[in-house]
Write a structure and sequence with these properties.
Elements lengths: L38 E12 L4 E8 L5 E8 L2 H6 L12 E8 L7 E8 L5 E3 L28 E5 L6 E2 L29 H8 L26 E4 L5 E6 L4 E7 L15 E7 L2 E7 L4 E6 L2 E3 L4 E8 L5 E9 L8 E9 L7 E2 L9
Parallel strand pairs: 3-5, 11-12
Antiparallel strand pairs: 1-2, 1-4, 1-19, 2-3, 4-5, 5-6, 7-9, 7-18, 8-18, 9-10, 10-11, 12-13, 13-16, 14-15, 16-17, 17-18
């Protein structure tokens, strides 16, 4: 490797079979990338963003004419990268690296999906999911601190088992649950929902590429409390509770001890949430939603008549929350839908870091 210059910009339009693992289906569809073309770049890291749902790096490369160009490299999600052996410190600004990447189908875009990296010390590491050569290092799965406890729902929580939209009554921790009779979907179609003709027509036209999440539009309650990323509950004071969702840095405010939704409140993407306690259970009533694409589930939108009631119940050990919810929307649903999931306290959940970015999270 020549370290005498910023780096030789070498484009190798070849199919490197050994360097092409099956890409994990994470936040983004990869259909916009030319997966049959692999380019090799050598240069210097000038920016690195370690966070969900996008992990990106900017690489400065110098071509044979001596001109420097900045390339935007997309990596996988934090969870997938962690399984491949990455940490937030794997890349640093100033590192000289080699990258094997797929170009965007639109050649005018300066965007690439990276598969493998050669780090400054010569170590090769994968940034895509799926099978990898034996020499690619992997880190052991991070262990959750099972001794952590919450006394009032506050803390950092993740969805246990990786499911969202679990049929009420399916309990984690025992035998494998049966296939859900109802699912809100994710990157697959919602199934089992009682739909109106309008809702069914939309679901019949389902296309994963139309997922608004691919456009970085956040989900709406209750689906915003999904398996992607962590969810931080903050008991700020007696008047409000704050939910901070890692994906897209969404903050949701629950107005406590309020009997009805404030008059004159404008409909919004997240709606207007009021809450109260019934014993140890936090009840959240959310209304005044703006219409949203896929606001019910994958392939089914929601209207401004959507109404959601959620119940968050802390277990006796203080390390699990039972999240139960009911969704109503007479425009798309022929009857209310009630589902549930379990959240697990994860006090050591990795903080994400952004280098040289104006979009800083609250974590």
């Amino acid at each position: 490797m020549n370290h005498a210059r910023v780096g030789n910009w070498v484009q190798l339009t070849v199919i490197l079979t050994i360097f092409m693992p099956a890409l994990a289906l994470t936040h983004h569809s990869r259909s916009n990338f030319d997966l049959d073309t692999v380019l090799e770049f050598h240069g210097v890291i000038i920016e690195y963003s370690w966070r969900n749902p996008h992990t990106f790096a900017t690489l400065a490369v110098t071509d044979d004419a001596g001109e420097t160009k900045q390339l935007l490299l997309e990596l996988n999600s934090v969870s997938v990268l962690t399984r491949q052996g990455w940490t937030r410190d794997t890349l640093k600004v100033g590192d000289e690296v080699t990258v094997f990447a797929n170009p965007d189908q639109n050649s005018s875009k300066n965007l690439y999906y990276s598969n493998y990296w050669i780090l400054p010390g010569g170590q090769m590491i994968a940034s895509a999911g799926g099978g990898t050569p034996d020499e690619i290092p992997r880190s052991p799965r991070r262990q959750v601190d099972q001794s952590a406890r919450s006394e009032d729902l506050s803390g950092m929580w993740v969805v246990e088992g990786g499911f969202f939209g679990r049929r009420r009554g399916d309990q984690p921790g025992g035998a494998a649950p049966q296939r859900n009779a109802v699912s809100l979907g994710g990157q697959t179609q919602a199934v089992g929902l009682p739909l109106t003709a309008k809702g069914q027509a939309e679901l019949d036209a389902w296309d994963v590429e139309k997922n608004p999440f691919f456009r970085c539009e956040s989900k709406t309650p209750p689906a915003i409390t999904s398996r992607l990323g962590a969810h931080k509950i903050i008991r700020e004071n007696d008047d409000r509770i704050i939910f901070r969702h890692e994906i897209l840095d969404v903050e949701r405010i629950i107005h406590m001890n309020v009997s009805e939704h404030a008059a004159g409140t404008e409909p919004s993407h997240l709606g207007h949430s009021i809450g109260w306690f019934e014993g140890d259970t936090l009840v959240i009533d959310t209304a005044l939603f703006a219409a949203a694409t896929w606001g019910i589930g994958s392939g089914v939108s929601s209207s401004d008549e959507k109404h959601v009631v959620e119940r968050f119940t802390l277990n006796d050990d203080g390390n699990r929350i039972r999240h139960e919810y009911t969704i109503e929307d007479p425009v798309y649903l022929s009857e209310p839908v009630s589902l549930s999931q379990t959240l697990m306290l994860d006090s050591t959940y990795p903080r994400y870091r952004i280098v040289r970015s104006s979009h800083v999270g609250h974590w």
